[in-house]
Specification:
- Removes the phosphate from trehalose 6-phosphate to produce free trehalose.
- It catalyses: alpha,alpha-trehalose 6-phosphate + H2O = alpha,alpha-trehalose + phosphate.
- Keywords: Hydrolase, Magnesium, Metal-binding.
- One of its GO terms (molecular function) is trehalose-phosphatase activity.
- The protein is of the alpha/beta class.
- It has two domains: 195 residues, Rossmann fold; 74 residues, Alpha-Beta Plaits.
- The chain has eight helices and twelve strands.
- The strands form two sheets. It has an eight-stranded mixed β-sheet with strand order 5-4-3-2-1-10-11-12, with helices on both faces. A four-stranded antiparallel β-sheet has the order 6-7-9-8, with helices on one face.
- Strand 8 and strand 9 form a beta hairpin.
- The longest helix has 19 residues.
- It is globular, with a radius of gyration of 20 Å.
- The C terminus is likely disordered.
- Bound molecules: the ligand O=P(O)(O)OC[C@H]1O[C@H](O[C@H]2O[C@H](CO)[C@@H](O)[C@H](O)[C@H]2O)[C@H](O)[C@@H](O)[C@@H]1O.
- The site of the ligand O=P(O)(O)OC[C@H]1O[C@H](O[C@H]2O[C@H](CO)[C@@H](O)[C@H](O)[C@H]2O)[C@H](O)[C@@H](O)[C@@H]1O has 23 residues, from strand 7 and strand 9.
Length: 290
Protein backbone atom coordinates (compact mmCIF):
# COMPACT_ATOMS: atom_id res chain seq x y z
CA UNK A 1 0.00 0.00 0.00
CA UNK A 2 1.43 3.43 -0.93
CA UNK A 3 1.97 6.19 1.66
CA UNK A 4 -0.81 8.82 1.73
CA UNK A 5 0.27 12.27 0.43
CA UNK A 6 1.70 14.73 3.00
CA UNK A 7 -0.76 17.44 4.18
CA UNK A 8 -0.04 21.12 3.38
CA UNK A 9 1.52 23.27 6.15
CA UNK A 10 -1.64 25.36 6.71
CA UNK A 11 -3.85 22.29 7.15
CA UNK A 12 -1.27 20.77 9.47
CA UNK A 13 -1.20 23.92 11.61
CA UNK A 14 -4.99 23.80 11.84
CA UNK A 15 -4.80 20.13 12.83
CA UNK A 16 -2.26 20.90 15.56
CA UNK A 17 -4.55 23.58 16.97
CA UNK A 18 -7.52 21.21 16.79
CA UNK A 19 -5.71 18.44 18.70
CA UNK A 20 -3.99 20.58 21.31
CA UNK A 21 -4.84 19.69 24.91
CA UNK A 22 -6.17 22.31 27.35
CA UNK A 23 -2.99 22.25 29.44
CA UNK A 24 0.70 21.57 28.75
CA UNK A 25 0.05 17.86 28.04
CA UNK A 26 -2.72 15.33 27.51
CA UNK A 27 -4.67 14.08 30.47
CA UNK A 28 -6.31 17.13 32.05
CA UNK A 29 -10.00 16.90 32.93
CA UNK A 30 -10.35 20.15 30.96
CA UNK A 31 -9.21 18.58 27.67
CA UNK A 32 -11.99 18.66 25.09
CA UNK A 33 -13.14 15.44 23.46
CA UNK A 34 -12.26 15.23 19.76
CA UNK A 35 -15.00 14.11 17.40
CA UNK A 36 -13.72 13.09 13.96
CA UNK A 37 -16.84 13.06 11.79
CA UNK A 38 -16.39 11.89 8.22
CA UNK A 39 -18.70 11.83 5.23
CA UNK A 40 -18.57 8.59 3.22
CA UNK A 41 -19.16 8.96 -0.55
CA UNK A 42 -16.62 11.23 -2.22
CA UNK A 43 -14.76 11.66 1.07
CA UNK A 44 -13.56 8.23 2.24
CA UNK A 45 -14.84 6.34 -0.82
CA UNK A 46 -14.16 7.73 -4.32
CA UNK A 47 -17.31 8.36 -6.36
CA UNK A 48 -18.28 5.50 -8.67
CA UNK A 49 -21.12 4.89 -11.12
CA UNK A 50 -22.73 2.09 -9.12
CA UNK A 51 -23.30 3.13 -5.47
CA UNK A 52 -23.43 -0.52 -4.35
CA UNK A 53 -19.74 -0.88 -5.23
CA UNK A 54 -18.45 2.11 -3.19
CA UNK A 55 -15.56 1.29 -0.86
CA UNK A 56 -13.11 3.30 1.25
CA UNK A 57 -9.63 3.57 -0.25
CA UNK A 58 -7.04 1.44 1.54
CA UNK A 59 -5.35 4.47 3.19
CA UNK A 60 -8.76 5.82 4.30
CA UNK A 61 -9.71 2.43 5.76
CA UNK A 62 -6.37 2.20 7.60
CA UNK A 63 -6.72 5.72 9.06
CA UNK A 64 -10.31 5.11 10.16
CA UNK A 65 -9.40 1.84 11.84
CA UNK A 66 -6.46 3.43 13.63
CA UNK A 67 -8.62 6.28 14.97
CA UNK A 68 -11.27 3.83 16.09
CA UNK A 69 -8.63 1.84 17.94
CA UNK A 70 -7.37 5.05 19.59
CA UNK A 71 -10.91 5.81 20.75
CA UNK A 72 -10.46 3.05 23.30
CA UNK A 73 -7.63 4.88 25.06
CA UNK A 74 -7.70 8.59 24.11
CA UNK A 75 -10.25 11.41 23.92
CA UNK A 76 -10.92 10.94 20.17
CA UNK A 77 -14.16 9.43 18.86
CA UNK A 78 -15.04 8.51 15.29
CA UNK A 79 -18.28 9.06 13.37
CA UNK A 80 -19.39 8.35 9.80
CA UNK A 81 -21.98 10.91 8.68
CA UNK A 82 -23.70 10.07 5.42
CA UNK A 83 -26.67 10.56 3.16
CA UNK A 84 -26.74 6.77 2.81
CA UNK A 85 -29.36 5.02 4.86
CA UNK A 86 -27.99 3.50 8.05
CA UNK A 87 -28.05 -0.14 6.95
CA UNK A 88 -26.31 0.70 3.67
CA UNK A 89 -23.69 2.82 5.46
CA UNK A 90 -23.02 0.06 7.99
CA UNK A 91 -22.76 -2.49 5.21
CA UNK A 92 -20.45 -0.56 2.87
CA UNK A 93 -18.59 1.47 5.50
CA UNK A 94 -17.67 -1.52 7.66
CA UNK A 95 -17.49 0.76 10.72
CA UNK A 96 -15.06 -0.40 13.42
CA UNK A 97 -16.01 -0.90 17.07
CA UNK A 98 -17.09 2.32 18.81
CA UNK A 99 -17.95 4.21 15.62
CA UNK A 100 -20.99 6.49 15.73
CA UNK A 101 -23.08 6.40 12.57
CA UNK A 102 -25.39 8.99 11.09
CA UNK A 103 -27.44 7.85 8.09
CA UNK A 104 -30.02 9.47 5.81
CA UNK A 105 -28.43 12.92 6.34
CA UNK A 106 -29.29 12.82 10.05
CA UNK A 107 -32.62 10.97 10.09
CA UNK A 108 -31.01 7.75 11.37
CA UNK A 109 -28.35 7.22 14.04
CA UNK A 110 -26.40 4.24 15.27
CA UNK A 111 -23.41 3.16 17.34
CA UNK A 112 -21.23 0.07 16.91
CA UNK A 113 -21.03 -1.56 20.33
CA UNK A 114 -19.77 -5.07 21.07
CA UNK A 115 -19.52 -5.79 17.35
CA UNK A 116 -23.21 -4.95 16.79
CA UNK A 117 -24.93 -1.89 15.36
CA UNK A 118 -27.20 -0.34 17.99
CA UNK A 119 -29.79 1.90 16.38
CA UNK A 120 -33.22 3.38 16.88
CA UNK A 121 -35.70 2.26 14.23
CA UNK A 122 -36.82 5.03 11.91
CA UNK A 123 -40.60 5.47 12.18
CA UNK A 124 -42.46 7.52 9.57
CA UNK A 125 -45.92 8.87 10.37
CA UNK A 126 -48.83 8.44 7.95
CA UNK A 127 -48.22 11.78 6.26
CA UNK A 128 -44.54 11.04 5.74
CA UNK A 129 -45.30 7.59 4.31
CA UNK A 130 -47.80 9.09 1.86
CA UNK A 131 -45.32 11.80 0.86
CA UNK A 132 -42.60 9.20 0.32
CA UNK A 133 -44.89 7.15 -1.96
CA UNK A 134 -45.68 10.29 -3.95
CA UNK A 135 -42.02 11.30 -4.26
CA UNK A 136 -40.94 7.77 -5.23
CA UNK A 137 -43.66 7.45 -7.88
CA UNK A 138 -42.83 10.85 -9.37
CA UNK A 139 -39.11 10.13 -9.55
CA UNK A 140 -39.69 6.63 -10.95
CA UNK A 141 -41.88 8.11 -13.68
CA UNK A 142 -39.32 10.85 -14.43
CA UNK A 143 -36.59 8.21 -14.85
CA UNK A 144 -38.59 5.74 -16.92
CA UNK A 145 -37.39 5.43 -20.49
CA UNK A 146 -34.23 7.48 -19.95
CA UNK A 147 -31.06 5.40 -20.03
CA UNK A 148 -28.68 6.23 -17.19
CA UNK A 149 -31.33 7.91 -15.04
CA UNK A 150 -32.49 5.76 -12.14
CA UNK A 151 -33.99 6.05 -8.65
CA UNK A 152 -32.54 4.86 -5.36
CA UNK A 153 -35.19 4.16 -2.72
CA UNK A 154 -34.31 4.73 0.94
CA UNK A 155 -36.36 4.42 4.15
CA UNK A 156 -37.07 8.16 4.33
CA UNK A 157 -36.12 9.47 0.88
CA UNK A 158 -35.88 8.79 -2.83
CA UNK A 159 -32.85 9.81 -4.87
CA UNK A 160 -32.75 10.60 -8.57
CA UNK A 161 -29.36 9.52 -9.97
CA UNK A 162 -28.14 11.03 -13.26
CA UNK A 163 -24.38 10.26 -13.27
CA UNK A 164 -24.70 7.76 -16.12
CA UNK A 165 -27.05 9.77 -18.35
CA UNK A 166 -25.79 11.27 -21.65
CA UNK A 167 -28.98 13.08 -22.62
CA UNK A 168 -28.72 16.53 -20.97
CA UNK A 169 -32.32 17.44 -21.87
CA UNK A 170 -33.61 14.26 -20.22
CA UNK A 171 -31.56 15.03 -17.09
CA UNK A 172 -32.92 18.60 -16.97
CA UNK A 173 -36.50 17.32 -17.31
CA UNK A 174 -36.04 14.69 -14.59
CA UNK A 175 -34.44 17.20 -12.22
CA UNK A 176 -37.32 19.62 -12.91
CA UNK A 177 -39.82 16.89 -12.03
CA UNK A 178 -37.93 16.18 -8.79
CA UNK A 179 -37.87 19.85 -7.83
CA UNK A 180 -41.57 20.05 -8.75
CA UNK A 181 -42.71 17.23 -6.46
CA UNK A 182 -40.60 18.63 -3.61
CA UNK A 183 -42.22 22.05 -4.08
CA UNK A 184 -45.71 20.59 -4.26
CA UNK A 185 -45.24 18.63 -1.02
CA UNK A 186 -43.37 21.39 0.83
CA UNK A 187 -40.19 19.29 0.98
CA UNK A 188 -36.59 20.26 0.30
CA UNK A 189 -34.79 18.89 -2.77
CA UNK A 190 -31.13 18.26 -1.92
CA UNK A 191 -28.95 18.69 -5.00
CA UNK A 192 -25.77 16.65 -4.62
CA UNK A 193 -23.24 15.23 -7.06
CA UNK A 194 -25.37 13.92 -9.99
CA UNK A 195 -28.21 13.29 -7.55
CA UNK A 196 -31.36 15.02 -6.38
CA UNK A 197 -32.59 13.62 -3.09
CA UNK A 198 -36.00 14.28 -1.59
CA UNK A 199 -36.41 13.25 2.04
CA UNK A 200 -39.64 13.24 4.03
CA UNK A 201 -37.85 13.71 7.37
CA UNK A 202 -36.55 17.21 7.96
CA UNK A 203 -33.05 17.17 9.39
CA UNK A 204 -29.48 17.86 8.26
CA UNK A 205 -25.91 16.77 8.75
CA UNK A 206 -25.46 20.01 10.71
CA UNK A 207 -28.08 19.02 13.26
CA UNK A 208 -26.59 15.54 13.43
CA UNK A 209 -23.08 16.85 14.10
CA UNK A 210 -24.28 19.19 16.84
CA UNK A 211 -26.10 16.28 18.48
CA UNK A 212 -23.01 14.08 18.26
CA UNK A 213 -20.83 16.81 19.74
CA UNK A 214 -22.81 16.50 22.99
CA UNK A 215 -22.94 12.70 22.88
CA UNK A 216 -19.17 12.44 22.46
CA UNK A 217 -18.32 15.02 25.15
CA UNK A 218 -20.48 12.99 27.56
CA UNK A 219 -18.96 9.67 26.47
CA UNK A 220 -15.43 10.96 27.07
CA UNK A 221 -16.39 12.78 30.29
CA UNK A 222 -15.06 16.02 28.82
CA UNK A 223 -16.48 19.51 29.33
CA UNK A 224 -16.84 20.02 25.57
CA UNK A 225 -15.96 18.49 22.22
CA UNK A 226 -14.15 19.85 19.20
CA UNK A 227 -15.25 18.56 15.82
CA UNK A 228 -13.18 17.72 12.75
CA UNK A 229 -15.64 17.32 9.88
CA UNK A 230 -14.59 16.30 6.37
CA UNK A 231 -16.92 16.16 3.38
CA UNK A 232 -17.03 16.66 -0.37
CA UNK A 233 -20.60 17.50 -1.35
CA UNK A 234 -23.16 20.28 -1.01
CA UNK A 235 -24.94 18.40 1.79
CA UNK A 236 -21.75 18.57 3.87
CA UNK A 237 -21.95 22.36 3.83
CA UNK A 238 -24.70 22.10 6.44
CA UNK A 239 -22.22 20.38 8.76
CA UNK A 240 -19.44 22.88 8.02
CA UNK A 241 -21.88 25.68 8.85
CA UNK A 242 -22.33 24.57 12.48
CA UNK A 243 -18.60 24.35 13.23
CA UNK A 244 -16.87 26.91 15.48
CA UNK A 245 -13.41 28.45 15.67
CA UNK A 246 -11.89 25.54 17.59
CA UNK A 247 -13.31 22.98 15.16
CA UNK A 248 -11.78 21.97 11.84
CA UNK A 249 -13.80 22.01 8.61
CA UNK A 250 -12.17 20.18 5.70
CA UNK A 251 -13.55 20.23 2.20
CA UNK A 252 -12.47 17.18 0.20
CA UNK A 253 -11.83 17.88 -3.49
CA UNK A 254 -12.81 20.87 -5.65
CA UNK A 255 -15.91 23.08 -5.51
CA UNK A 256 -17.21 26.05 -3.56
CA UNK A 257 -17.35 25.68 0.22
CA UNK A 258 -17.53 27.56 3.51
CA UNK A 259 -14.84 25.22 4.91
CA UNK A 260 -11.58 27.10 5.45
CA UNK A 261 -9.38 24.08 4.69
CA UNK A 262 -9.23 21.66 1.80
CA UNK A 263 -7.61 18.32 0.96
CA UNK A 264 -7.48 16.82 -2.53
CA UNK A 265 -9.08 13.42 -2.00
CA UNK A 266 -9.66 10.43 0.26
CA UNK A 267 -5.98 9.53 0.42
CA UNK A 268 -4.93 13.09 1.30
CA UNK A 269 -7.56 13.06 4.05
CA UNK A 270 -6.16 9.74 5.25
CA UNK A 271 -2.70 11.33 5.48
CA UNK A 272 -4.08 14.04 7.73
CA UNK A 273 -5.97 11.58 9.93
CA UNK A 274 -2.77 9.56 10.35
CA UNK A 275 -1.05 12.74 11.60
CA UNK A 276 -3.84 13.25 14.11
CA UNK A 277 -3.45 9.66 15.24
CA UNK A 278 0.33 10.18 15.59
CA UNK A 279 -0.25 13.25 17.80
CA UNK A 280 -2.74 11.40 19.98
CA UNK A 281 -0.43 8.39 20.26
CA UNK A 282 2.40 10.66 21.41
CA UNK A 283 0.14 12.45 23.88
CA UNK A 284 -1.19 9.23 25.31
CA UNK A 285 2.22 7.60 25.72
CA UNK A 286 3.80 7.58 29.19
CA UNK A 287 6.62 10.19 29.51
CA UNK A 288 9.35 7.53 29.49
CA UNK A 289 8.00 6.16 26.22
CA UNK A 290 7.46 2.67 27.68
O1 LIG B 1 -23.33 11.76 2.39
P1 LIG B 1 -22.58 10.82 1.50
O2 LIG B 1 -21.93 9.69 2.23
O3 LIG B 1 -21.62 11.55 0.59
O4 LIG B 1 -23.72 10.16 0.59
C1 LIG B 1 -24.39 10.99 -0.35
C2 LIG B 1 -25.00 10.14 -1.45
O5 LIG B 1 -24.00 9.22 -1.86
C3 LIG B 1 -24.35 8.30 -2.87
O6 LIG B 1 -24.34 9.00 -4.09
C4 LIG B 1 -23.07 9.52 -4.44
O7 LIG B 1 -22.12 8.44 -4.54
C5 LIG B 1 -22.44 7.49 -5.60
C6 LIG B 1 -21.40 6.37 -5.52
O8 LIG B 1 -20.10 6.90 -5.61
C7 LIG B 1 -22.45 8.20 -6.95
O9 LIG B 1 -22.79 7.28 -7.99
C8 LIG B 1 -23.47 9.36 -6.91
O10 LIG B 1 -23.41 10.10 -8.14
C9 LIG B 1 -23.12 10.29 -5.74
O11 LIG B 1 -24.06 11.36 -5.61
C10 LIG B 1 -25.63 7.60 -2.56
O12 LIG B 1 -26.05 6.83 -3.66
C11 LIG B 1 -26.74 8.55 -2.11
O13 LIG B 1 -27.85 7.83 -1.65
C12 LIG B 1 -26.20 9.38 -0.96
O14 LIG B 1 -27.21 10.27 -0.49
Amino acid sequence: MSEPPAPTPSVLAALTAFARPAGPGEGSAEDPALLVALDFDGTLAPLVDDPTTSRMTDPARAAVERLAELAGRTRVRLALVSGRDLADLADLGGPPEGTYLVGSHGAETGHVVGGRLESVALELDGGQRAALRDVAATLDEAATGHPGIWVQHKPSAAVLHTRLADDAAAVDAAVLAADGVADRLGLHALHGKDVVEIAVVTTSKGEAVERLRGVVADAVGAPSARVLYAGDDTTDERAFAVLHDEDLALKVGPGPTVAPYRVADADALAGLLERLADALERGSSPPDGS
